[in-house]
User: Fold these one by one.
Assistant:
Number 1:
Amino acid sequence: MRLPAALALTTLAGIAYGLAFPPVGWWPLAWVALVPFLVAVRDTSARRAVGLGVWLGIVASYGVGTWMPDAVVSYYQQSILVGALMFLACALWQAAWQYALFALVVRHLGVGLGAWTPLAVAAAWVAAEVARVV
């Protein structure tokens, strides 16, 4: 898959993930939000999988944290650039590296677990989410 298509699928997954949570709260999207991302990382290189995982972390974080750059501007009297950089730093710390590792694991799981693959991918996602909140 070409990089623009992989980025588009990953962006779609991140947007769907964000929409599943408040303030929008379209919770049924949570059941299918990762499907485009899983398609994007299925047959890609390890380096690209990690990059797509980082991108997923940033997009998904923005989906649930759109308020953060504005809050930095309003409450701390900083520029929007500082707000965006603060958001990016938080997204990289709180989601991007965990999702990058998840992408790497998914890429490796896709080669040979057969019927156990969906269960292993689900377990990897749960591990990434637990790592995100610990």
Note: Helices lie at 3-19, 35-42, 46-64, 67-76, 80-109, 117-133.
Number 2:
Amino acid sequence: MATSERIEQIKRLYPLLYFACHRSHDRSDGLTEKDLRILHHVQDGDKAFASGLTRHLGLSRSTLSAALSSLESRGLIERLHGSGRRKRILLTKSGVEAMHSDEGLDGKAIESILDELEERDQERVVEGLALIGEAIERLKR
């Protein structure tokens, strides 16, 4: 179990990295912050039904429905009929590409931060983030 001190350190440090490297929300493809949040959560898979998205994102059903219709008309998602009235929401190849075309983090800012560190410390940063990624993947199973 993680100690409360480690948890507090992560809560303090993560926003420092995020805000130091975060890009502007202006995108040339017209995707809004809400669109990107939806795409990221659909990619996650756990919330690939509208009901899960409305609860998790705190959106009304009508707001989510309008956003999904817009994303679907742009070819970024598809809604597949499942059992009953539920429709599974999946990213299309275009949706994945749109999401990854601009991850929201500025590579130049990351480079500047890493340049402040010795090469071995840069490797440790990447190794630490990889460990976190592996733990997240294990939790998804």
Note: The chain has a mean pLDDT of 85.
Number 3:
Amino acid sequence: MLQQDQGLLFGPQETELMARAGDAVAAATAAVSQERRGWKRWGFLTATSLGNGAIAFISVALARLMMDHLMPTGAYLWLCLAASSVVVVMSLASRPDRQRAPGGILEEWIEASREAVAAGMALVLITFLWRPEPIQHFSFSRGTVLATVPVLFVLVGLSRTAWRLLLLHLRRQGHNLASIVVIGDSSSSEAFIKTIGARSGTGYRVVGRIDSPDVDADLAWLLSDLSRSVHIDEVVIASFEVSTEQMEALIAEPAMAGVRVRAVPEIFGLPPSKVEIGSFAGFPVLTLFENPVRGIRWKLKRAVDLTVASTALVLLSPLLGAIALAISLTTRGPILFKQERVGMDGKRFTMLKFRSMVANAPDAYHRELMSSFLTAETEATAPHPSGFFKAADDPRITALGRVLRRFSLDELPQLFNVLRGEMSLVGPRPALSYEVALYKKWQRRRLHVLPGVTGLWQVSGRSRLSPADMLRLDVHYAETWSLTTDIKIILRTIPAILRDDAR
């Protein structure tokens, strides 16, 4: 069955996509629309590149003013033009109009660093190694050349960030959208379509879906016919049932020229968050990684974890001492509650919390509660009246423990888990082993990243969420991680606690 966006078309695969009398009009409309989209895209790309180039020109001038207290004149204008030209060319090559990573702010600063270094190398080449005739005998300030790189990095980074935010705004208004057709009706295709709908900033729009294509279905004809009424930028395959012959016909179809074809890694049984497509001995391969947050992103995330956790422990040490003293004076038993939890990739670790229950409290109550949530109630749409993970009337909680839980103060010792690398500041809720044993396959995806002290589940009001929604939040975070998301969650945590959202 083929479904076109907004319910405009439903029917068997053999059904005509539109009446033949309207084909010419639809094709003409699609062509005009595509031409208009092309002009808008090139207009944005031109404005972005020239804008970044102007910022680079200003960066050299500012460096000259900072180091020598002079405005750039004469030969220094060559340096301004050289830096500006490098940045314009690199901005054009990076195609910011096509960047569709969620948020994408970090990527913009990475590009800014590349442009700053490239511009710096160009200035060194001009000033010290090769000079055009007009400036052959001119003596340049080394300080100006050296200062240009950091100044250009900061200013171009800010410029790229501003352009990216403008692009996100335009996409939310319906501009610069790439049209996608999804093939398949698997859980992966459903999740993909829902994610695309929820993340308008990526600039994707699903215009149609082909459900359960049988072996005899002519996918190439279906997509070709659909392309007469709507422009198709990409085709995403999320089905085991697409045959090799269908793939070959799809790629060879003239109407599909220029259309990018993708496949969801999970159709090969691999989790999307841990797969990267690369080349091995000349063959395209899918590489499975242990940690979905890799490279510089992982280093940045870990750096943020270590910096914030260590700083928080130092600043909050008087509060930690006061809580420890209050627990020892009001109840019998240890100050810290230690419990085995399941971390990334199922690795066990000992999680630390301030004890908020009576000593040696049995866990049968919580086991029964979680068992009911994760079996009979996993797909429920309404939250449990007592909340998902913490029952409001739990008889094991002490009077002081209720206060600690109300403001999430019992979670503070988990900062030590962060320092040890067992947890992150932001991530899914640390799971218990008997919870994990009850997980469905899709729910285990939440174990693809480090568990967190806080997370989407904390700032989204977990006492008001259904069990299924809670787990979907964790899975969504695990598969769409970004540093920007982490920062937003950290900033939203304290307001959420004060509103009693994180109870």
Note: The two ends are 45 Å apart (CA to CA).
Number 4:
Amino acid sequence: MAKKISWQGLEHQQRITILRDLSIDNIVAQYEIPGTSADEFRSTLAKQTSLWAPKNLGAFVMEGGPPTKDVVLGAWRDLDRAEALLELIDNSIDAWNLRRNLYPAKTAENLIIYIRIDAGTQQLTYEDNAGGVPKEKLTNLVVPGYSW
């Protein structure tokens, strides 16, 4: 039997593409989350499919690079980390509500926000199913009170 590929080793975009293109049974046959059973992996895949609705997603677009010094200094002066995180959550709620009103058939029934903190790299990953941020609004993503 061929060795399975680690699901956790894939980039987010790769996982979404696989969820869109393959059935859960085909994914379980080719991939794994080490240390979990096939049923647990199947359950994880069902949750991720529900969260992302991959068949409704358009192409991924990566914008820019790391924040500029001005953005970082501005955020540092105006926010502490908790406030910045709360502002991200507030923006997710606003975006999801707007999307739900404009495109009810293509919007998830529930807003789901996923936050992961990697203590080793001291990196926070924030994901939601609210529909994304317009490119021109990225610089104001955590500005207090700014809602796009």
Note: The helical segments are 12-21, 24-30, 38-52, 69-78, 81-102.
